[in-house]
Give the backbone structure.
Amino acid sequence: MDGVPAIPHQRNHPEAARSRTNNHTSNRTSTTTRTPPDTPVPSGARAAAAPAPSPATADNRFAVLGPVRAWRGGVALPSGSPQQRALLAVLLLRDGRTATAPELIDAIWGDDPPQQALATIRTYASRLRKVLEPGLLVSDAGGYAIRLRHQEALDLGIARSLAADAEKARAAGDRTLARTLLARALEMWDGEPLAGVPGPHAETERTRLSEWRLQLLETRLDLDLEVGHHAEAVSELTALTAAHPLQERLRELLMLALYRSGRQAEALAVYADTRRLLAEELGVDPRPELSALQQRILNADAELARAEDPAPAAAPVPVRPAQLPATVPDFTGRAAFVTELGEILAGADGQVMAVSALAGIGGVGKTTLAVHVAHAARPHFPDGQLYVDLQGTEPRPALPEAVLGSFLRALGTPDSSIPDSPADRAALYRSILDGRRVLVLLDNARDAAQVRPLLPGTAGCAALVTSRVRMSGLAGAHLVDLDVMSPEEALQLFTRIVGAERVGAERQAALDVVGACGFLPLAIRIAASRLAARRTWTVSVLAAKLADERRRLDELQAGDLAVKATFELGYGQLEPAQQRAFRLLGLADGPDVSLAAAAAVLDLPEHDTEDLLEALVDCSLLESAAPGRYRFHDLVRLYARACAERDEQAPGREDALDRLLDFYLATAARVYSVERPGDRLPAHLSATRHPGLVLTDPRAALDWLFAEADPLLACVRQSAGRPGALRRAVDLLWAAKDLSESGANSKQYESAALTLCEAARAARDARAEGRARTTLTMVHLFAGRFCEADDEARQAMDLAREAGDPLPSCWAPNDRGIIALYQNRYEDGERYLLEAIENFRADDNRIGEASALCNLSRIHVGLGRLGSAIDLAQQGIAVYDRMGLTLRLANGRYALGIALTQAGRLGEALAQLGEALSLFHDNRQPLWEGVTHFRLAEAHLAALRPALAAKHAEQAIALRGIGGEWRRATVLTVLGKALRRLGQPDRARACWRDAETVFAQLGSAELAEVRALLASELAA
C-alpha cells in the first residue's frame, strides 16, 4: 500500500467490500464474512482505562473504539442505559456538529421509535449533562452537540492523529516510525467499536470503524514486511486470513511474509488455497497482483527480498593555498561519513564557521578520510585550503604559533608582517580569513588546546580536525567517531590493492585476511601491499601467516608502515597506571568488559577503574561500547597482550584472570540463588576469593547475566586451559545455565561446554568432567538431540559416582527421564525420575525434587495415568509456590497444563498454560515461550479453536530457537492440523511435508503420524 488509510466517512455498499479491500476495480461481489468465534479481536493494552490524557485534556475523556465509556479526571462516569450510550456515541462521532432531534431519534431507534422518543432524548441529554463537564453538552437549534476542546479527549481522535502522523512519516521515508505510530493507533481499539450500543447508526459506525481498523492493520503489516519483521508477521497474518478468508491483500502479504521467512512451499500453498476458495465461493480467479506474486516466488525473484537504497555518494569537487596532500587513488567505502562531512562543509558558506573533528584509533583512516573529504569540498572553498600535521602523537607536537606563522605565509603575508606573539599571530590569521572561504585541515592533533588558536573565526570558512583524542573540549564542533571498516568495505579495499583476479579465486581466504586485520584500514593496506609485492604468494598463504595471533602484529608491516608502531605511539604517552590497566585488560578474551569486571581484573575500586578506562578511551586505545562497557579493537588487544607478556610477570597475569573468573562465578551464583531461592546448587560450587556483585532483584539479576553473556562464556572457554581454573570454569557454566535455557546464547554455551568436557577429560578430573557433561546434556536436550543428550547424561552419572559428586547424581537422572519422555520410553523415564527424586531428597534439594515431580507428571501422562499426572504436577507447583520461585512455577504450570489438556479439562489447561507463558516471557525464556505456545496450540486444537491453534503455532515458529529441528517439526505438525480445519489443505500439506523431512532425518517416532496425516489428506 502507498499510504496510511484515512478513516472512511461513510460505509460503502456491502457488495463493494471485496474490490475495496483488494484495491482494484473488479465487479465481483462477495458475502460478508464473520469472524469465527475462536478468532480473537485484537485489543489495546488500555482495557477499561481512559485514553491517556494530555496536559490539555485532563477533564472529560471518551471512548468509542470498544464499549462507549466516559471518564472525568481518570474516574469512570456512569454512561446509563444502552440507548443513552447510543445518544452519547452519536454526538461524539459528529465531531462537534449539531444533531437535530429527528436525526437522533432515527439514529437510536430507526423505523420503530417509541411514542415518547423526543422526551426520552431530552431525559438522556439531561442525565449526561449532569455527569459531564459543564458546557461540554450543548443544546443548539432544537438538537444537541458535544464540543470537545481537543481531539485527544476521544480515543478515535487519538487514533486519527496517530494515523495521520504515520502517513506523514511514511511519506518522509521513516517506515520504522510509521509502523510504531500505526501500532499505537491500533492499540486504541478495545474490542468491537460501540460494543453493546443499539440502533442503526451504531451498526453503521461499527462496520465503518472495524473496516478502518482492518485497513490500518493491513498497512502496519505491510510496513512490518518493509522493515524486515517477516517471521513475526506470519502469525498475525495467519489469524487474519482465517478471519477474513476473501481478503486477497492479506493473502498476498502472508505469501510474501512466508517467502521471506524461508517458507517458500507454504507461500505457494497459500496461493493454491486462495485460488480454490475464490473459485468455490465467488467463481473468480485471484487478482492479477496475487498471481504475479506467485510467479515471482516460483522464479525465486531476488527483488522480493528488497534491499535498502544505497546512500547517495558525495559529489566530488577541485584550488589558493592548495596544501592538501594527495588523496589515495584506492579510497574505499566510508560513504556515510563522506556525505555527512561533505554536507557540513558545503553548508559553511554564509553560515557560522563549521568545525568537524574526527577521532579514532591509530590506523583507522582518519587522515585518509579527512583528505578525501577536503578534496571533494574544494569548490566550496575557492580561496584556498590549508593543511598541517600537528604531530600530536610525537613527544614534541607542533606549536600553534609555529603553525600560524606557516599559515600566514601561505596566505601571502610577508615575513616582515608576521607578529612575534602567538595571540597577535592568531588575530592576524583570523583577520586575513575574514570574508574569504578557506578550508583548514588540522591533522593528527594532540588536544583541543593545540587546535583552538588555529581555527578561523568567521562564516564561510571551515576546519577539519583529526585526532586520536575525542575533541569534546572543542565548543560547537561536530564530533565524528570513526570506527573500522565494514567487512564489505574492507574486502573492497583489499581487492583494489591486490587485484580482483587473485581475490576472486580465493574469496574466503581474502575474508579471513581482512578479518585478521580487524577491518582496520592501515592493517588491510599493509597486508594487501605485502601480497601485491609477492606474486608467488597466494591469498591463502597470507591468511595462514595472519592466523597466528602471536605473530600477527609482526606480519603487519611493510616498508615504513607498521601497525605495531602506530599503537606504540599511543601507548608511550600513557601514565604508568594507565599502561598497567591497558596491559591487564587485554588479557581477557571477551568481546567487551563491564566496569565492574574491569575493576575485578585491576583489583581497584570502580571509580578509580573508570577514570583509567575513560583515559584510555580518550586516547583511542579503548572504545566505550555503551555506558559502563568497554572493548578493544582486535589488533589493539593483541598489542596489549604483547605488552603484558613483556612488562608483567606470569603470576601477575594469572592473578588478573583469576580475579575475573572469581568475579563472574560469585556473581553468577548469586543470580542463580536469586532466581531459584532454596536451590542447593550454589552450596556445591567452588569457593571464590572475589565477592562478586550484590544482586537481590530477580529482574536486575537476569539483566546482568544476559548483558554479560558473551564475556562470561569467553571467560569460561579461556579458563578451561589455565592451571587451577578448570573446576571454577565448569561451575560458572552450570551457574549460568539460564543462558542455555533462554535459547539466545545456546551456540556459545554449547561451545563452552564442549571445551570444558575436553579439558576435564584430558586432566582426568572426574568431578569437573561429570559436571561439564551435565551442562552439555542440557544443551543437547534443548536442541532436540536426544540420543546425544542421553549419552552425555549416562556418562555424567558414571563420573558422579566415581567422584562422589551429588550434583550430577541428582540432575543427570532427571535429564535422562526427560529424554526418555521425548523418546516415548515411559517406563525408563519413570525409573530415572524416581532415582532423581531420591537423590534430590538425600541432598535436601526441594527445588530439584519439585522439578523431577513435574517431569514425572509428564511421564504419567504418557502412561495414561492422568489422575496421578495432575497430582504430581500440583505437588511440584506447591513447592515452587511456597518458595516463591517465579520461573520454576512456570515450569510447574506448564506440566500441569499438559496433563489437564490430555484429561480433557481444556479451560483449566489453557489457564495454566497462559500463566506459564506470561511467566516465561517476563523471565526472558524464549525457548520455553516457544514450547508453551506449542502446548497452547494443542489445547486450542482440542477445544476446536483452529484459528487460535494456528496463531500459537505460528508464534512458536516465529520465536526461532524453540529447541532445534525436532521441536520445529512437532509445531509444524500441529500447525498443519489447524490449517486443515481452517480450510487450507494445501498449506497444511506443505507443513506436514516439511515435518516429514525433519522426522525422517532424525529417525523420530513422530514420522508415522505425519505420514498418516499426509496419506489421509491425499485420500480425501
